[in-house]
Structures are given as C-alpha cells and as structure tokens.
Amino acid sequence: MTEDEKETLWEKRHYLTQIPDALPLVLASAVGWDWASLTNIYQLLDDWIPLSSVQAIELLLPHFPDITIRSKAISWLKNASSDFLFNFLPELVEALRFETFEDSSLAVYLLTLCAGDRRFAFELYWQLQQRIDQCEEKSYSNRCRLLQQQVLKLLDEEFGIDIENQHRLLQALNAVSCEVKDAGDASKMQLTLQRHLALLDARILENNVRLPLLPSFLCTGINVSESNYFNSLTKPIKITFKGLKSSFAVLYKVGDDMRQDALVLQLVKMMNDIWLSQELDLRMVIFRCIPFGNKSGMAISLLFLIWSYSKGMVELVSDCRTLCEIQSAVGATGVFKDDLLKKWLEMHNPSEFQYKIALENFHLSCAGWCVATYVLGIGDRHNDNILVTRTGHVFHIDFGKYMGDWQTAAGFRRDRTPFIFTSDMAYVINEGSPQSATSRYQHFVDNCCKAFNLLRKKYSLLVNLMKMMSCSGIAGMNLEAVNFVQSNLLLNLTDTQATVQFTRMIEESLKSKFPRLNFLAHTLVQMRSTPSMLLGGYGDPNKLSFVQQLYTMKDDGRITRAVVLAFEKWHIPEKMYKVEVNRENETVCGIVYRSFMEFNELYIKLCRRFPFAHLPPLSQGTNVGRSNIRKVAERRQADLQQFLNVLFEYHPEVASSDLVYTFFHIIFRDSAPEESNQFLQLKVDEDDIASKKITCRIFLRLTYDQQDGDLNVFVGHVRGLKIINGQAPDSYVKTYLHPDPQRISKRKTHVVRNTQMPTFNEELNYQLLSDINLVDRALEISVWNCGSLVGENSVIGSVHIPLRKLLDIPVDRKGIKILDGWFNLSTGLR
Length: 830
Known about the structure:
single chain, alpha+beta, Serine Threonine Protein Phosphatase 5, Tetratricopeptide repeat, Phosphatidylinositol 3-kinase Catalytic Subunit, Chain A, domain 4, Phosphatidylinositol 3-kinase Catalytic Subunit, Chain A, Domain 5, 5 domains, 4-stranded antiparallel sheet, 24 strands, PI3K_accessory_sf, 1-phosphatidylinositol-4-phosphate 3-kinase activity, ATP binding, PI3/4_kinase_cat_sf, 1-phosphatidylinositol-3-kinase activity
C-alpha cells in the first residue's frame, strides 16, 4: 500500500470493525507503535469482530511483533478445530521464530495442545527436532530445544520411552542405509539389507516402537521378505513394518533434503481440505512425509554416529504402479498408446462396479493433481513420478522441482506445459470414446475449474502458510515463491475469466507432444538400467499381460470347447475375436473377446512353458501385406479355431493349465463389451440421440454490469449435437446482438473438433450504453458445424435470448446482474 492509502485506511478504521480481513491491513497502516499509540491499537483489538483461524494466522507473521496482538491472535486461534491446528503445526512452530520471548502465548498454547492430545506431542517433538538439527540461527534453535525439553517434562515417562525408541529406530535405519550403500553390487546390497533388517526385527520384537511418521502405529517387527532397496542415487530402502493387526510400508532415504517434499504435501493437503470443506471430493491420495536432520539419529548414542546431509521417511502407497511401468509393458512405444492405461484399469477392476468406481477415482484425482501441480509450479514431471493405484487414484511423488524451478536438459526446458494431462489420461476419462470429448470430459473440466476457483477464493490460507515458511531455510521457499503462487492463481481475474484461462491450459496440455517425448526419453533410460523391461508384457512367462491374476479349472469350471464365432472392429486398427466358451455342467455358454495379439501372447507363453508341445502356429498365411484388413482377419479366425481345437484335445497338463483358464476367464470387457468397443459407442451415441430425440443444449452465463454497461457472454458446454455425415461435428458458437442490420456485432468462439459434446468455456464481450438498450435488444446464439475446405459451414441450432430478462434480475453486491443456465437449441436460424 502507498502512504496515502495507509493514512486513509487508518482514518477510517472504525468503519471497518465488522470486516475481519481488514484488521491486518489496518494494523499495518498504524501511524506509530510508540507507547502513546498503543492504546488506540489495543482498543481496536477489543472492538474488532473475531477473526477466523485462517485470518488469525496472519497476525503471527513477523511484521506483527507486538505481544498483545500475538496473544489476541492465539485467543482467536483457540476456536480452530484440532485437525486444522494439527495440519498447521509446522507453521506454528515456525512462528516461534518471530516471538519476542520464550514464554510466549504461542509456546504456552502449543504445550497445552500437547497435554490434551499425544498426537500433537509427537508431531511437535519432531517438528522441533528438525529446527534443532537444521536451523543455522542459534537463538531460534535454542528456543526450539527449550520447548522440546518442556514437552518431555510435561508428559509422562511412557512418552519419553516412546521418543527414545524412535531415536534408536532412526539410528538403526541410518546404519542400515549406510551399510547398503557401501555393499557394492546389487546382490550384496540386498543380502546386506536383509541381514541388518533381520537384526533390527529382533530388537523391535523385544522393544516395540511407535513410528515417527505415524505414532498411532505400534511397530512389533519388520517383514524382511517384503523389504528391499531402490536403485537410485541415494539408494532409498523400502521397509515394511509389522503391527498388531496390519502392516505399514515406508521409504527411508538418506542424502536428500525431504523438507521440500513435506512442504508440498502439506500444501496439497491444505488444498484438499479447502475442496472438501466446499463439498468437492477429488479423491486425493495424500501420503505422509517427515524429514529428519543431521542429528536425529545421534540423540541417544554415539554408537551409530552417521553424518548425512538430510534424511526422511515417506509413507508408501500400496497397490500402485508408475505410468512408466504401465506403459513399458508393451515396450518403449507404450508411451504413445492411448488405450494402455484404460486396459490396465480394466484388468485390475474385473467387475463393472469396480471399474466404474476406478474411472470416477481417476477422473476426480487427475483433476485435483492438475490444479495442484499448476498452482505450485511442480516441475520435473515424467512417467516415473506419476502413479496410479489399482483403484484408479492418480497421485504424484518427488517434488524436488517446484515454484517454477523447471527441469532443463541441454539448456532446453523439459516442463513445457502448465501441468501433465496427456491423451491417454483423456482416453480413460472419455472411457475410450472415439470422440475427442464426452460428457465425462466436460465434468472433468468443470471439476478442474471449480477446484481452481475455490483455491482462488481461499488463497489467503495458502499464502499465509507460505509466508510463514519463507524464513524456514527450505530451498526455493521465499517471498518470490509466494509471489509465484499468487500469480498462478490469477487473482486479478473474475471466476469466469479464470475458468476460461484454466480451460485453455487443459487444452494446451492435452495437445502438446512434449510430455510424451519426455516420457519416451525417461523410459529409454529406465530400460537401459533395467533390461527386463525390454521384454514388455511377455516378460513374465507365468502371467498374461491383460489379466491381473491367475485362474484355474477349479475356479471357473472345465472347458469342453471354444468356438471363434466372429471378429469385430473395436479399435483402430485392432480387431477383437468373439469366442464362445462351453464349460462342463453349464447350460449357458460364456462369451469372451480377445485380440490376435492376446492369442499370440498365450501361444508364446504356452510354448515357453511346454517346449515339447506341438501347437499350430498362429501366423500361418498372414505374414504378407496389411494385417488389419478383413481378409486377413478371416484367415486369422480360421487359424485361431484350428489352434483352439488342437489345444483342447492336447494333454491335460497343457489344455488345463492356469494360463489357458486365465485366458478364458471373464474380464470386464467380456461382461460389458459396449464400454470397450469404440465403434459401438459411436453408433450408440448416434442412435441414442436419434431415438430418444435428445435436445441439443448449450450452457450460457450472461453478466451485465450496470455501471460500465458491459455485457459478457460466457459460452460453456454444448450437449446433444447430432452426427453429421457419419461423424461427430467440428463445432463453434457464433453470437449477434440484434437489431444489427450491418452485422457488426458478430462474435465467434474457437472450433472444437470431433465431438457431439464440445466444451468452449469462452467469454464474448459487448458494450451497451444504458439499461434502455436492454428493452428492445436480443442476443442470438447459434452453434455451427465447420465445413471442409470445399464445403460450407452449416448451422446446427440456435437460441434467442431477449435482454429485457436482465431487467427483472436483482444486482449482486458488485452491481452485476447474472442470467445463466442451460438453453435448448432449436434447429436452424430464426
């Protein structure tokens, strides 16, 4: 603020006492802080309406050092929920840095929280330990040490024993990590890890320990067989701890500063809390991370004295795979295949109910992480730090590059899109539709934009958190980072304008080829270091790449005969073969759909397992020319039938093997073939619109500013467009403001191609002189199909909206009239 603005704000301070957000600004505008001025300032605190917990946090920033103001902030903060306080604990510990004295109201309040909830005591202890280990400012480090001692004195002896056991656990893990690194080759490293973890398992069995990462989990031992190390630079170790009723897997890493990861995960959790508070559940997977300093493993004994720059413990999410692992199942070119991710979800969710839930999880969590990674400027995104769980949840790991610190290679920026949203992700969201967008994609865009606008609305929570941490010494966390996030939130735009901008970012990310080229480069590097990946989906001779687990004759019943009934074109260019499966004692035959490549995989793996079995080859007569034409498919159908006839007449060891019964096990595509068949989907969409006479509709939002005379027309989604000449239209929207004899009021959106449900999310502007102009004016909105180079554009449908409707709408607090909703499109122009 300028000096004049500060002076005006201070003079009018008594008119602002009912506006909580104004208090920090008024206090920052105070004429002076001498003893004569304090009476007026303190009186303001008593007169002001109570601040929320988020607003009170701002008064703990360093530019409010006054003890009374900070004490008042703590009194308001006491009304916050325990979850909010627990999530904000790192910032409250950081705020101790700005207190004048050790026995501050904040320090006393933190001790009070510890006395009432042991969860706070463990978290506060380790947050203080980080500052003791890593802070270069002696006065603050000593203050943290003093408060840590008070925590130990305040709680009972059992708490002290738990803390001592946690320190000993960290000492032991440091020693194990060091021994593994020094072991040399891979085989020795694994043996060293297992030997040391077996010794640690015996010690934990004798003295159970609560994990610093999750104190509610009482560790009773280590599952040595499930523990291993990762072949990266720092050689992090995966440890599966055993509990009384469950297990808990963590990644322990020595050599990386984990404070960035912990901070990013805290910010993402704050974002998720904002969304959940507004009833937007994006199914986010938030995992725990706790960094440790140089001395955390030395507090009890010098026996395991290990020096390291930094270390930390991260919770491992179960049942997940990286995009690289999913894509490389068919080799390096898998990064360019759109259907692999969808097939992977189908494989791990065989029932229709499970699959639908997985798709919903994918769509929602993908939207959440798109927004989060954009706002925080997360860089170095590739297919090895984006993961998907078997239940469809997307999440990111490894946050070493953030706040716009983009990854470069040979001087070129590798992160060239606002966030990672590739066509294989869109393919999952569209459920394999051949069209570029469906109603599901429109919901995805809506959720992204809604999540983004909610963060803009609650930006002060994120900004205050970052301001509090700007003095923490964490790399990249400074006032420039705060400005970066504020800039990314587009705070100077309206919600509608922000929606338009974020939609353009989605389109930019989806159209860009650079992410997948980056994925390819990373996959090739991984394949060089992991040769088994070169085998692709045929790597495991005992499993099929498209079925999650093995099934036997006992599971599904004995197969007596299998008949290849026909072939269908499901994908471009792949065809699927429809096979009738007859089983013993079953009157109804089962139907499965398998591709030629999947039959070939079965053939190869049967030959590998049973090398003396003489099965007829599948490639007979199909080696020359195009492999996807109808004649080839007909020859292949005959070859496949001959192969099946010989297979089921063969020795039971082969015919009844688990590979064969797994191949014919009913999977999701068999129970719901219409979900996977692109061409059937397109025909269903076309027939559905024709038979049910679905009305074409368009979402519009008209906003009229009475003061400035601005009329803004927001064009959102369109639904129910008809198929034109056998294909989905390439559509755009055109508007006129009538009467307009010279047709100078024409406005147009961009063209959205190949979809019956386009998303425009574009704002068109008109300038009106006064309300009088609204009475006799009307807005014409029409949807057009963009013709070919030689063809003409044709109108699909239109709607007329008399602007006098705006006259009856009350203005909001900003003086704006809003008319929005879905409008039916009539055929042709009026």
